[in-house]
Amino acid sequence: MALFGHRRQAPRLAPELDDVPLGRVLRGIAAARGPGPQDLAIAHVERLLRDTGDDWDRRCHRVGVLAQAAPALARGWRERRPRDPDALVLASWSELATDPRGALATCGVAADARPADPTPWVAALAALRLLGRPSSELSPVWQEIRARDPWHREAHLQILGYLSPEEQGSQAALRDFLDDAIAVMPWDAPTACLPLTAAVRQYHRTRSSGGIQALGASRYWSQPHTDRLLDQGAALWLQPGHLRHAAAVADLGMLAYALVRAGRRGDAGPVFSVVGGLVAPWPWKYEGDPVECYTDYSGRG
């Protein structure tokens, strides 16, 4: 990942982030019309996922983006290659939005097809979360993921959402999960975003709660624990080699957002420079159109 090789460009939604090969494949998919081009697009997806190898973090990023961009391609590929582990895992992720029960079944087949891969298990975790299943059903899936990739970013974010008060958890459950993770998390793990992600979500939970709590949301980022998170992000995340995971640009975008909300525009400027206009929808969508919000905030940074 060439975080420091970005040229400043007009902000745009970039689901691929700074993954150039993935972006190239996405453009090919968008241009594919008819059986011939569709076959070529499938071949490009197949090559991309094969070339990803056992970089599970990047594999999950690529599969998740492709599943959202090309569900029809995922279905067609699975029909042609029903035992192919890449086709199966892409199909399982593409089914999440419309048929989480079906996705759960496909996850099992995909996991059997490539036992070392945590990606089908992460899709299963997402499916169980969407279905609102009890923690007793998520726990064994979580253990399977941890056995394959202990610091899997997307898996940790799924649990963070599941344990939120809006879903199946509580503030206490969230805090316990975060405390346990932070206590043993490597400083450069793909999950480095976890504490700040939780803080941004809590900020918006407070803003939307109404009453006195909402009125006090403007002071949220000046509290010692949130101020410390921003200090750490501003000091460490831009260091070369610190963030190497596939979604690092999205995490830096989140940091820039939080810094602007905290009134720390001087710290936000260098972060925006590194992000380079590559916009992930979250957390910008809290304020409306993500690209418009990013453009506004980066002008303040």
Write a structural description.
With 301 residues, this protein is mostly helical. It folds into 2 domains: 15-177, Serine Threonine Protein Phosphatase 5, Tetratricopeptide repeat (Alpha Horseshoe), CATH 1.25.40.10; 219-300, no CATH class. The protein is built from 17 helices and 2 strands. The chain has helices at 20-31, 35-52, 56-69, 71-80, 85-95, 100-113, 119-130, 135-148, 153-162, 171-184, 194-207, 211-215, 224-236, 248-261, 265-275, 281-284, 290-300, and strands spanning 12-13, 278-279. Strands 1-2 form a two-stranded parallel sheet. It is globular. It starts with 11 loop residues before the first strand and ends with a helix.
Q: Layout of helices and strands, plus pairs?
A:
Layout: E1 12-13, H1 20-31, H2 35-52, H3 56-69, H4 71-80, H5 85-95, H6 100-113, H7 119-130, H8 135-148, H9 153-162, H10 171-184, H11 194-207, H12 211-215, H13 224-236, H14 248-261, H15 265-275, E2 278-279, H16 281-284, H17 290-300
Parallel strand pairs: 1-2
Helix pairs in contact: 1-2, 3-5, 4-5, 5-6, 6-7, 7-8, 7-9, 14-15
Short description:
By secondary structure, this protein is an all-alpha fold. Helix content is 67%, strand content 1%.
User: What is the N-to-C order of secondary-structure elements (H for helix, E for strand)?
Assistant: EHHHHHHHHHHHHHHHEHH
Structural class call reads: mainly alpha
Shape: globular
Output the CATH homologous superfamily of the largest domain: Tetratricopeptide repeat domain
Strand content: under 5%
CATH domain fold name of the largest domain: Serine Threonine Protein Phosphatase 5, Tetratricopeptide repeat
Number of strands: 2
Low-confidence stretches: none
